[in-house]
Specification:
The structure is a homotetramer of 325-residue chains.
Chain A (H helix, E strand, L loop, with lengths): L1 E4 L4 H7 L3 E6 L2 E6 L5 H6 L2 E5 L19 E3 L2 E3 L5 E5 L6 H14 L3 E3 L17 H14 L3 E4 L6 H7 L2 E4 L7 H8 L5 E4 L6 H13 L5 E5 L15 H10 L4 E3 L1 H5 L5 H11 L3 E5 L17 H17 L5
Parallel strand pairs in A: 7-8, 7-14, 8-9, 9-10, 10-11, 11-12, 12-13
Antiparallel strand pairs in A: 1-3, 1-4, 2-3, 5-6
Helix pairs in contact in A: 3-4, 3-11, 6-7, 10-11
Chain lengths: 325, 325, 325, 325
């Protein structure tokens, strides 16, 4: 049972003797109670709301909040009527490239700049990112162009550092069940984009989000980025019905990453249209001024021109589902 | 190498000594040649066109025909600008129900009626279909309502029977690699809808189509119906990027079956919108006047009312991608 | 409920009014009853045994028969203490090769010769088998060498033909849910090897077996041949715990096909040892006198020498689990 | 190219200008060189060995070392003729339970005690482990019983703490691509057990091992613990052929975790026998004195009695493959 109070209640906590977790939500306190609350005590409490859910993820569930949660990153608002586009290079590689990308994606209609300074790479011999130097470039370009930035963190000790430079933090698919990282980001005071693990069920994904919420971070954006299947013609398989289903299960916004989902430049537009048509609240797209020299994920990065065309198509689809970009 | 001639060439066949397959295509003859053709012979032949493809599926490949193939079923045309909607009950259960369904889906904009008389069921204890009686009902309702019908065949010996009653034949996901069935349908003289197997790669699917084409049946419509993955929240996962990719690999039309892909009524609209947004040429949707009493697939069947709403949404998406319904 | 009677009971059938299926089992008749049987009627019947099962597959369930079913093919007995080895080329290619293979595998300890005359091939351009000519070769070699033969059928119309030549019939992975084929083999009067579909759950596999049993064919041998997963380093993944689990769910014998499971010659010995260690009742192994010229599955065929070595290893494992080869 | 020298070479490093990584291996230095080394320089160097590999994982490859690497944890040696058994409760829950478990598994033949103090749990509401208190218990019981202990770490900051108490560190399946954790364990000076991610390919797994080796930790034991597939009857599917294949690709020892692979107590013995038959160098098994009260993974924990029986079976299989327990 979920009970929301205006302030903490010592008498409730005493009566429950450890059978609860509590989480601040704005100016309220949510108690997640395991088992029953004595009737007389219930009568005494100044309860704002009281909810039941049979879901394993409590705070993330639609039962907790029928209203969709909106998450702001700079001027962008995820979960509202607008489809939010996050775009930029896979990795931060240098100031000029990043600046070019930032200007171009903003001009084309993106509201958030993406770029990785800490790159989780399958091979230790691949480019691992510029680290703090990359974060500094992100911040600089963000100020110069006037666009908020989203960047990935891969270990708890990077969280406070990245929070100083970035407007929002990303937890990658490989780290969806890196629980210490989830807890650290839950305490970071920054909106978080939580990617679905490549073989995670939707329930596991929402339980990972629950780790963030339980630490008091309610600004969580879920990101479907394709799941791993037997099919090798595409890097992953974008689960569009999964996006629609997730939105019925949780109040959190859900976006899609067509770049990682397909791994192939020529399919990104189709996957983007499909995701928005299915109800995605936003897109996360890899764009690189010169994909052929990208240090990471070149084959799945759009050129500026391709991104501009994509934006036009996405706008049409957004309108068809009663939204805008 | 694929060589198209106006008529059969005995001298070519003799020179190739078995290193070829030949297939009629309209009034032309296509020779699929393994290896080289002697230069002097090439000069002699009255060649309409000559194509190379590195694909394992030759006739089905885009290299064979850059132009999209259009397949007619009654008045409906798959592969053209119009999104073709096929709808109806999973199984033919009785005349009145079928008639109600047919009228309703036609009124709402469907161009083809679907309904199964031979039902491939996981359990031998499940309803197996009405057989020829079901086919007769389909034909009757088709005439009464004025809508062509599509029905599934599950064994070679059903093909000629079903061809007498139905306008188009369906090969189900479980039979995608039932090669004797493919050959029989390849010789049936009816357009065929070939579903992707639930764990078939796109290449395997196109090779299954090749079996049909090689028998001379060029009227093949591919149907993506979701693939089997680790995720159990939905029956299958609709591979929308796979639809887009398939269309780059083949000239055949590709439609989607959101009903089997999701297995959940509440997700069918989202999956339908996504499929059309990704480039699907049509949809195959289970609609039942009373899903709660359906003898098969009730939980994934739309009511008439839900189907009407879906059609409105699909029309908007079709317009957004420059097509119509 | 499953009721076994010494002979058919008209009064029972009348009382049940269609709520039953009946199947001969040896000299007995099994009634599979849906719902209750009137108490007074129960008292009247000469019931041999009466069983309940909550399984979807009734006749195949362990609840129906706690005792393991033993299936004889020639002198070989599947499901008893002996591990039965079936070996031979993927496809029948010619008399001499088959004869060489048959003699060699028999000498090394195999009890059944395998060989395909009807080959289900992903590509229509691959070798499709010799058909009846291949069956004739199989029969000839069988007589000459004194070893029973197992061969695959891929369509209902092949069943009676193949039954004339072969001692046992195989239903391949791609046809596990080819229900018309299952029914035909269920009526063939020949033991059947039923392979697990490459993405079939164990329950679906046992329901496919149920199709055979319901037609009166109790001589069913299940064969695990690897399932399709995301891993591409091997052709499939052999589900050894699945073998152990299946044996707790059904009374039918379960064998393994390490050749298709791995697709790589160098892994077949390890997979064979693992399967027997996990409880498999037999092995189905591709052996070819000259794998480098095999018309099908060469890379996963063992040479005679490799097969002899494998047999020694399997014998050791069989002994370790209290069985023999 | 991999070049092993007796000591560092400044002239080599200078000539390569950054095109290398170097790693100490015992008293030698391995240079992993990208591209060519000037011929004249090669002649000058005092080269112990020089290897080529086309593998993406260099140090972990069989090409680097044809000889199997042996890793010692206390008295136990992984990768030698003996099958090493690691057993114990999933989580450390209390001193007495752990002590009982340790004594029992040691008596039955286990050489390493397993037990988790930091538990990565899908749900934040599940028991998360005792942390340092649990580590202290592990150390105490280890001393008391005389058995080395293996425990899991889930974040870089736990590594030095856990290294003080444990003889070996485990990286769980969910953290296989937690690269910061891999680097920390690579520097920890403790043998490491690296589990395969539930949807990781073998190549990705070996690249994760490469992260450890590159930091100078050569004492890496790989652990196959089942992969995620469409089948839900078991928790995962144990990839036995994958174990055999991995051993051909790397010189590192490979063990199996039948508890997580199956998730079902009744299948653990079969999976253990299969793993050892396929060539596994050891087993990691969950044993709990009272599984019915276990705070984690009760359904897949063996009782002491079941573990004793299992050990007898495993001994027989080990003997059959020419090894011992």
């Amino acid at each position: 049972m979920l009970i929301t109070l205006k302030k903490e209640s010592r008498s409730l906590e005493k009566a429950l003797a450890g059978r609860f977790r509590k989480v601040p939500h704005g100016e309220r306190i949510v108690y997640i109670v395991d088992g029953k609350i004595p009737e007389d005590l219930l009568a005494e409490l100044d309860i704002e709301s009281s909810k039941e859910t049979s879901r394993s993820f409590k705070l993330a569930s639609r039962e907790y909040s029928e209203e969709a949660t909106r998450v702001r990153v700079g001027e962008a608002e995820f979960g509202g009527p607008k489809i939010v586009i996050c775009a930029g290079p896979c990795a931060v590689e240098g100031h000029q490239l990043l600046l070019d990308a930032a200007r171009a994606v903003k001009d084309a209609g993106a509201s958030v700049l993406r770029g990785g300074a800490f790159k989780p790479r399958t091979s230790p011999y691949s480019f691992q990112g510029l680290g703090e130097e990359g974060l500094r470039m992100l911040r600089g370009v963000s100020e110069e162009v006037g666009i908020p930035v989203l960047t990935e963190v891969t270990a708890p000790e990077q969280v406070s550092l990245a929070s100083r430079y970035a407007d929002a933090l990303q937890i990658g698919a490989r780290n969806m069940q890196n629980f210490e990282l989830l807890k650290a980001v839950g305490r970071a005071g920054r909106p978080a984009v939580l990617k679905r693990g490549s073989s995670a069920t939707i329930e596991e994904w929402l339980l990972a989000a629950e780790y963030l919420l339980l630490e008091g971070n309610w600004e969580v954006i879920l990101c479907e980025r394709g799941i791993r299947t037997f099919e090798t013609a595409t890097r992953n398989v974008l689960d569009v019905a999964g996006i629609a289903l997730t939105k019925t299960m949780t109040h959190l916004p859900v976006i899609a990453d067509p770049s990682h989902a397909t791994g192939r430049r020529e399919l990104i537009a189709a996957a983007s249209r499909a995701a928005v048509a299915a109800g995605a609240d936003g897109l996360l797209i890899e764009v690189h001024p010169k994909p052929e020299i990208a240090m990471s994920d070149g084959p799945q990065s759009l050129t500026i021109r391709e991104f501009e065309l994509l934006m036009k198509e996405v706008k049409e689809i957004a309108r068809a589902v009663g939204r805008c970009v």
